[in-house]
Amino acid sequence: MDSKIKNEPEKPESPAPASKKSKLSRFLRAAELAFAATGFIALLLVATPVTNWLFDGLDRQTPLARSKYIICLGGDSARIIESAGLLSEGYGDYLIVSNHGPFSKYMRELAIEWGADPGRILVDDQSKKTRHHAPSIARNLDVNPTEDSCIIVTSFTHMARSKACFEKAGFRHVIMREPRWERSSRPAERTWKWRFKVLPDVIYEYAALAEYFIRGDI
Q1: pTM
Q2: Which end of the chain, N or C, is more open, meaning fewer C-beta atoms within 10 Å of its C-beta?
Q3: What whole-number distance in Å separates Cα of residue 39 and Cα of residue 69?
C-alpha cells in the first residue's frame, strides 16, 4: 500500500497567477513610455520646421478663375462668408452650400446675410462627412463632374483631403480656395507658438488622409 503511494507521479503545481499589482505596474510602465514618446514627437514637431513642411504639404490652392459653381463645404462661418463674397464678386454663377440637415439651411441664411443672391444659392443637405460632399452634390444638384467648373471653399488644412475626394468622384475642373482672412492673418514668421497652435489640425488631417486612403475614398 505504501509502495503504491510512493510510486504515484507527483502532480505538477499550477503556476501562480500574475498578481494584480504586477499587471498594473506593467500597464503604468507602458503608459509612461507612450506618453514619453508622444511628448518627444510633439516637442520635435513644435521645435523644428517639420510642422511647417507638413502644413505646407496640405496646400492645394491655385489662382482664382470664374467658374460655374462655388461650393462651400460645411464648417466654420469663415467659409460661408468667403463663398458669399466670391459670388458677389462674379466668380461663380451659383453658390452651393453643402452640409446636412438644418446646418445647410443655416449656411444658406448666413450667405444671404453676407450679400449672396438667394436665387443663386443651391442647397445640398445630405453630406455629413468630407467624402459625402462630391457624390451628393453630383447626384442631388445635377452638377456634371466632368464638365462643370467649381471653386471649392474650405479651410487650408482641409483642402488636400477635399480635393482628393472630389477628384475621386470624377470632378475634373476644381479650384481650391481658403477664406482670405485666414491667409492674410497667417504670420510671416512661423514661431514655435504658431506651430503649437496648428499642430493638432495638421496631425488630424494627415491621419484622416491615411484613413480615407485605406478606405478607398481617395
Answers
A1: 0.80
A2: N
A3: 44
